[in-house]
Write a structure and sequence with these properties.
- The protein is mainly β.
Length: about 160
């Protein structure tokens, strides 16, 4: 996760009504976790960076320097979960030989198709509810999904 993405998350969180947000990026060896919380006086920030990751300056210091915000003003309420509207089989592409509708990092616009869920021999498109970037795709293509199961995380 780069600073530009973090800045965008902060702006979205500040302009939202969310009270708390946590975002994780990377794998176990190279994980970055950002937690944003709002309270009546100010928002708080916690940034965790693994010790094994070499950095020129700490993530919180770099974030404060690049955003111009103090630690108590950082907001993260921008990640939205897109949940399955039904029970069915999740397909990431229109056919097995086609490219997926979206991948991690894809920019999407409201109304773009994200996946197909097959239920009772009917193919149902799941579309983006807002503009954003796909942060995470949770199910694998061909996997059975439940009603309300998180399919995507969009920022």
């Amino acid at each position: 996760m780069d600073i530009k993405t973090i800045k965008t998350l902060i702006n979205l969180f500040e302009n939202s009504q969310l009270g708390e947000m946590e975002v994780e990026s990377g794998d176990a060896a190279d994980k970055l976790r950002v937690t944003l919380k709002k309270n009546s006086s100010a928002a708080t920030v916690a940034v965790s960076v693994p010790a094994a990751v070499p950095q020129t300056e700490s993530a919180p210091a770099q974030l404060k320097a690049e955003t111009g915000l103090s630690e108590g003003v950082l907001d993260y309420n921008l990640v939205q979960e897109i949940k399955s509207p039904m029970v069915g089989v999740f397909y990431s592409a229109p056919s097995p030989e086609s490219e997926p509708f979206v991948t991690r990092g894809s920019k999407v616009k409201k109304g773009d198709t994200l996946c197909i869920i097959e239920a009772m021999k009917l193919m149902n498109e799941v579309v983006a509810e807002r503009d954003g970037e796909i942060v995470e795709i949770l199910p694998k293509s061909g996997e059975l999904v439940e009603f309300g199961q998180v399919l995507f995380k969009i920022f």
